[in-house]
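Fold this complex.
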Amino acid sequence: MQENISNTPHKSFFEESGGKRGIFKWIFSTDHKRIGLLYMYSIISFFIVGVILGLLMRLELMEPGQQFMKPATYNSLFTLHGVIMIFLFIIPGIPAVFGNIMLPILIGAKDVAFPKVNLLSWWLYVIGALFALSTLVFGNGPADTGWTFYAPYSVNTETNVSLSVLAAFILGFSSILTGLNFIVTIHRMRAPGMTWFKMPLFSWSLYATAWIQLLATPVIGITLLMIFAERLLGVGLFDPSLGGDPILYQHMFWIYSHPAVYVMVLPAMGVISEVISTFSQRKIYGYKAIAYSSLAIAFIGYFVWGHHMFTSGMSGPARVIFSILTFLVAIPSAVKVFNWLATLYGGSISVKAPLLYALGFIFLFMIGGLTGLILGALATDVHLHDTVFVVGHFHYVMFGGTGFAFMAAMHYWFPKIYGIQYNMKRANLSFWVLFIGFNILYFPMMVVGVMGMPRRYFDYLPEFHIPNLISTIGSWILAIGLIMMIANLVSAFRKREKATINPWDGLTLEWQISSPPSLENFDEIPTITKGPYEYHEQK
Amino acid sequence: MNKNNTITEAQAVHPFDEHRDDEASKLGMWLFLFTELILFGGLFLVYSIYRMMNPEAFAAGSLHLDVSIGAINTIVLISSSATVALSITAIQLKRKRLTINLLLFTIFAAFIFMVNKYFEWGHKFELGLFPGGDAFNALAGGEKLFYVLYYFMTGLHGLHVIIGAALIGWVAWEVKVGKQTHDNFAFLENAGLYWHLVDLIWIFLFPLMYLIS
Amino acid sequence: MSKESHTPHIVHFNTQIKVLIALLALTWLTVTIAYLDFGNLTVFIALLVAVIKSTIVLTYFMHLKFDSKILTAFLILVVVIFGVFIGLTFFDYALR
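Structure:
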C-alpha cells in the first residue's frame, strides 16, 4: 500500500472557494470534483424527469384502448423520454460524473488536462438540456419522431424537431470535449511509475470510451445539422423525389448511435471491474484481457451499426456483414463477464450495496446481451424488429446495465466523495426492491414482443393485455425502489455519520487520500511501484 | 515535466510553470482536428453515395462551377498554409516582425478566399441556382442534390476559414505583445494546425466539386 | 518521443518553400488531369493526387514527420475508421 498521505486533517475540496462566493463557487469552478458533482446533480434531476415520462407511458399502456392521452401525446412522450434518458442521462452519466470526480485521482493527478474545457463541457451540457426541455413549452410541443428522428417524418412534422436536434448537437459537443480531455489526461498526467498496465481498469474503460465520444459524435453532429438544414431550407437531402435516400439518414444516424451505446456501457463495465475486485479482495482476473477488450469493443463497435437497419432495405450482403460483426463484438463483452466471475470465485466476498448493484449488473446485462444476439441474427430480427422485444432488450442493457452500474458507483464512491456513510441495510433493501421491480417491468416486454406487439404504439391488441399490466405494476415497484435508494443516500447527509477513508479496503489510489478529497487530491503526487489490485501482497 | 521526465528548454527556464504542457496542448488540438475530419467526413460520405447514385447529374452540376476561381482559391489556401508554417520557423528564429507579417498574409489570404466565394455564390444566386430559386427548382433531382451539397460543404468550409482567420489574428496579436515567443509558441503552433486543416479539407473539396467532368 | 524534449525542431525556410512548390505543382496536375479523360478512373486519380497533397501538408506543414509517432498512429486510426464507414455504407448501396 502506498503510504503517502499524512495523518493531518485535510481541508476538503468542498471548503475551497477558489476566490468565488455562493453559487459561483460551483458553476464557475474548474475543479474536476466540483464539475463532476455539478454533472451528478443535473443528470439525476433530468433522470427523474425521464422516469416520470416513463411512468406516464406505462400508465397509458396499462390497459388496451386509450386511458388518458392522445396518440400524438404518447408519441411525444416516448420521444422526450428517449432524448432525456439517452442524451441527458446515460451517455454523459458515468464518464461525466464518476469519470470527472475519480479519473485524476485514480491516475495520481491533481486535475484533468484542460480544466477550463471541462467546465465548458458542463455548461454545454446544461444549455443543451435546456434546449431539449424547452421543446415541452414552445410551439407545437416536443418532437414526436422517436429519439431517432428518422427522415422523412422528422423533416415534415410540425413538432419541435429543430429545437431537439439543436439540443442534441450542443450536447454532442459537450461529449466530444469530455472525451478529448480524458484522452489527453490519461496520456499525459499519469503519476510517475504508473505505466498503462498499472492503471486501474476504470481508467482503461474511460480511455476507450473517450475515443468513441471523440470520433463517433461528429457524425451525428453533421447528420442532425442536415436535418436542421432540410427543415429550414426544404432542400431534400433525404428526399427520394429529389434524388435523396432516407436510408442514408439511418446509416449516418446509427454510425454514431451504435458506438454511443458503447459510450454508455464501457465506463459501466469499468466500474464493475473496480467493485468486483474490491469486494472480492482479489486481483481482477485477466487484467490485460479486460483492458484490451475495452479497446476491442470500442473498435469493433464502430462497424456494427447496420444491425439497426436490417428491415430498412439494405442490400443482402450488407445485412450479412453487419450481423457477423455484431456477433463479433459480443465476444469481448463475454470475456469481461467471465473474468468478473472468475475474480469472484474463491474471493473473500463481502455482500454490500456496491457489490449487490454490480452483481445485478452482471445478471441484467447478460439478459440484455443475449437478447441482443437474438436481435443480431437476421432471421429472428425480421420477426422482432420494432417490437417491444427491442424495448426490453435495450432497457436491460442500458438501465439494468449502465443504470445499475451508475448506482453501484454511487454507493461505492459516496463515502469518498462526501466523507459520510449511508445506511447499509436500507441501501441493500432498496437494491432488492429496484431489482425485483426492474424485472417485473421489463421481462414481460420480451414475452409480448415475441408475441408481436409493436413498439412506439400507444395502444395494443387485447391479447397483449396481461403482460402490459404486469409491466406497469413493475414500473411502480421500480419507482418505489428508486425513491428508497435516493432517500437513503439523501438521509446520510442528515445523520452525518463519518466514513473512514477506506471503508471497503480498496487498493486503488482514491482509498489512500482523505474523504472528501482535498482540492489538489494529493499532498504529493505519488510514485507508483505496483499494479492497482495487488491484494495478495496484503496477506 | 513531460512524459519522458525530461524538461524542455523552456520549462527549465520557467520551473514554476508546472501547469504548462505543450505536448498535451498539441495532442488536444490534434484530437480536435480529428473531430473536424469526421464532421466533414460525414458530408463526404453523403457526397460519395449520392455521386455514385447520380453520376450524370453531378457532372452536369459541376459544369456550372468556375474552375478558375476554384483553382485560384486552392492556390490561395495552399500559400496561406505555407505562410503559417513559415511563421513558426520565424518565431523560433526570434524574427518577430517576420512572424507577424507572415500571419497577416495568412489572414489576407483568407480574406481573398472569402471574397472569391462571395462572387461565386453571388453569381449563382443571380442565376437562381439556390435552394428555393427558380432555376434550382427546375433542376433534375440529382443535380439539386449536387447544389445542396455544394452550398453545404463549401459553406461549412467557409465558416471554418473565418474561424481560422480569427484564430490567426488572435495569435498574431499574442506574438505582437510577447505572449508567444521563440520558446513558448504552442498557441501559434496549434492555431497553425487548425489552419492547415482548413487547407486539407479544401484539397479534397476542390477536385470533388469542381473537376468532376 | 518528440525531439522537442531537448531543443524544439526547427523546419528550415527552404524546406517549407520546396513543399509549397510541390503542392502548387500537384494542384496544376489536379486541374490538368480533370481535362484528360480517364473514364472510370478519373475519380480515383483525382483522389490519389489529393491524398498525396494532404500527406505532404500533414508531414511537413503540420509537422507530423518531426513529432511523436503516436500522432501519426492516431491519424491513421481515424482515417481507417472513416474508411470503413464509407466502405460499409458502399456495401449497402453498391450491392442493392
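Chain C has three helices and no strands.
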